[in-house]
Amino acid sequence: MKVTKAVIPAAGLGTRVLPATKAMPKEMLPIVDKPAIQLIVEEAVKSGITDILIITNRGKGLIEDHFDRVPELEFNLSSKNKDSMLKEVVDISKLANIYFIRQKETKGLGHAISCARSFTGNEPFAVLYGDDVIVGDNPACGQLIKAYHEYGLGVLGIKKVKEEDIHKYSSLKVENLHDNIFKCTDMIEKPQTPEEVLSIYSILGRCILTPDIFDILDTIKPGAGGEIQLTDAMRELARQKGMLGVEYEGTRYDMGNKLGIMQASVEQALKHPEIGESFRQYLKDFCKNL
Ligand code: UTP
User: Fold this and answer.
1) Could you tell me the distance, in angstroms and rounded to a whole number, from the CA of residue 131 to the centre of ligand 1?
2) Atom of ligand 1 at shortest range from CA of 111
3) 243-247 and 181-189: which strand pairing?
4) What are the angstrom distances between the C-alpha of 152 and each of 5, 10, 210?
5) N or C, fewer C-beta in 10 Å, the chain?
6) Confidence at 36, pLDDT banded by 50, 70, 90
């Protein structure tokens, strides 16, 4: 079955980016001039996704507004003949069919995904983590969808992380099938001892799930950090019938931590058509005094 639906969990508290996230969702933090979540929606659309469910909670109304029309702003831009900006603003609301649901309690990523059950029905669906922006010519989500269509198994977007950092991530038991495609048969969230580490491959930001994940999620008890972990449910799926890992191409920015936000801003500002050159010059001058 073709993957046309995507879920973007965006209901986390963003405690690592406080105080910026006290009232503003971290998913709305901009990379130069686009909110992270817009870049994520654009990646999904480029990957063939037509319907997107964004999981929100209290205080995330800004996300809904961003994908809506804004008549007074549009009138203002139109009366000043700012036609290209007007088009850009209007086009955001036409990217895809975007739906919203609230996760009423912040019980973890696994719990957030279980809120998507009636939206996805019996179809496979993509999950794009709302604070992970992946930039590249070949959309990461599309690379995973291609693998799903090839094998019909759930797919994890994976990358290697530094050995000393693996305790902050998931760790996967993987075996290479061909090129950048792996079979994954086990995983653990935030391994606490070296014995628990299965490899330095981790799930980073994207996956394709099959609808059987929902029955498993219903049985999952709170895990690492007291949260209902999506990794714990995916482990069951991996153990029962195997999942795939795709070591995707693309640069991932973690907008859930301060360093990630700064890396995204600096690197993308250098490539920005409007300010790229002047920012490069500024950065060169600034670095002379570092
Ligand atoms: P994170 O664990 O990175 O988000 O979840 P967080 O809980 O906001 O992080 P900190 O530790 O407090 O800074 C990854 C994605 O899952 C969403 C988040 O919004 C983020 O996009 N999420 C997380 C939910 O939708 N619901 C949850 O209960 C937890």
Assistant:
1) 8
2) 28
3) antiparallel
4) 16, 27, 9
5) C
6) very high
Ligand 1 atom at minimum distance from 13 CA:
8
C-alpha to C-alpha distance for 56 and 69, rounded to whole angstroms:
19
Using a 10 angstrom Cβ sphere, with 0-12 exposed, 13-18 middle and 19 or more buried, the burial of residue 83 is: exposed
Ligand 1 within 6 A of CB of 14: yes
Closest approach atom of ligand 1 to CA 106: 28
Ligand 1: nearest atom to the Cα of 228: 28
Residue type, 231: T
Determine the average pLDDT of the residues in 205-224.
95
Instruction: Note the pLDDT tens digit of each residue in 108-157.
Output: 999 999 999 999 999 999 999 999 999 999 999 999 999 999 999 999 99
Which residue of 24, 109, 114 sits with most ligand 1 atoms within 8 Å of its CB, as the best mutation to test the pocket? 109
Kindly tell me the burial class for residue 107, based on how many C-beta atoms sit within 10 Å of its own C-beta (0-12, 13-18, 19 or more).
Answer: middle
Confirm if 114 and 236 have CB atoms less than 8 A apart.
no
Does residue 166 have its Cβ closer than 6 Å to ligand 1? no
Q: Is 19 exposed, middle or buried (0-12, 13-18, 19+ CB in 10 A)?
A: exposed
Distance 282 CA to ligand 1 centre (A): 34
Residue nearest to atom 2 of ligand 1 (CA): 12
Name the average pLDDT for the chain. 96
Residue 55, ligand 1, Cβ within 6 A? yes
Distances (CA, A) of 64 to 39, 59, 96, 123, 287: 15, 10, 13, 25, 39
